[in-house]
Design brief:
The chain contains 2 helices and 22 strands. It is mostly beta strands. The longest helix has 5 residues. 40% of the residues are buried.
């Protein structure tokens, strides 16, 4: 009689980045220490759930294209964030998607038990905060891998003043063909069409893709689903602590201008970013803790 499989956690190096490879009896996960960024997740016998660019560069100080980057303490361009979020930054140049994607996080805890693995990454910064952002806050990403993938991004305000934060788990999903994909669960929701002067509109039916897409959906339900017709599966997203989501595909023209991005890669990926943005941005009172959680899995059609 064979012995039960014991989950494995292995430290590896990918070019300039330290990474952690996690293996259970039925799935594999890869996480970079820089940015606590998930790079790969795949269950045995299935297609990858997360998309990682074929041109991904594993270099220090540069976010990797794909997986699940953590965007914090703001999402996107700082000037498009609420004024209260903008006011907390004192630096000269504000990088897109915040300040933590290119920093090393510490793997504080690893626990493997009953074919499940828990990892906790923490961003330990000096008491004066991040460069240009002099505020006291703890940020942790907890990863739980069992039959599904579960992420929890936890914010704790350690200071004496309120903190205003926008954030996202910027998930890149692998799909067979964007022409045969749609997102279900958005019908009837208000959204911001960022490609048309940031106009507010209402989603009619499921979201299908016929061109560049960059939309911020508001009052999003906990459950969304991507129908991946080419690979005959549904990708499920279940979130809490979030009422906004960003849906993005660069399509043909913008793909030519993106770093670490093949000219035809737009056909094989779709971003659905579980977020707290615009009116959904967080206000943390002194001592307050808030978490953004996301569970991912797929099932055949």
């Amino acid at each position: 009689m064979s012995s039960p499989f014991s989950p494995q956690v292995e430290r590896i190096e990918m070019d300039e980045l330290v990474c952690w490879r996690i293996r259970t009896s039925s799935a594999e996960l890869l996480v970079a220490q820089q940015g606590a960024q998930l790079l790969h997740y795949q269950r045995d016998g299935e297609r990858p759930l997360l998309w990682l660019s074929e041109q991904a560069a594993f270099r220090r100080g540069h976010s990797v294209r794909g997986g699940v980057p953590v965007c914090w303490p703001w999402f996107g361009a700082l000037e498009r964030n609420p004024q209260a979020v903008q006011a907390l930054y004192r630096g000269n140049t504000a990088p897109a998607h915040g300040l933590v994607r290119n920093l090393d996080w510490e793997l504080e805890e690893v626990e493997a038990k009953h074919d499940a693995v828990d990892l906790q990454f923490a961003l330990h910064r000096p008491a004066q905060g991040l460069p240009g952002w002099p505020h006291a806050a703890d940020l942790r990403l907890h990863i739980h891998l069992d039959e599904r993938l579960h992420l929890s991004l936890t914010n704790h305000n350690k200071g004496s003043q309120p903190l205003h934060i926008s954030q996202a788990l910027h998930s890149y999903f692998a799909i067979g063909d964007i022409h045969h994909a749609c997102v279900q669960g958005l019908a009837g929701l208000r959204y911001i069409e960022t490609l048309e002067n940031w106009e507010e509109r209402t989603q009619q039916g499921d979201l299908n893709f016929t061109g560049e897409t960059d939309r911020i959906y508001l009052q999003v339900p906990e459950q969304l689903c991507t129908l991946d017709g080419a690979w005959q599966r549904r990708i499920h997203l279940h979130s809490s602590g979030s009422r906004s989501a960003v849906v993005w595909n660069p399509w043909v023209d913008k793909s030519q201008r993106l770093s670490q991005f093949a000219a035809d890669a737009w056909q094989r990926m779709l971003c659905i970013e579980t977020a707290n943005v615009l009116d959904d941005a967080l206000q943390l009172a002194p001592g307050e803790t808030r978490s953004l959680t996301l569970s991912l899995w797929s099932e055949p059609l």
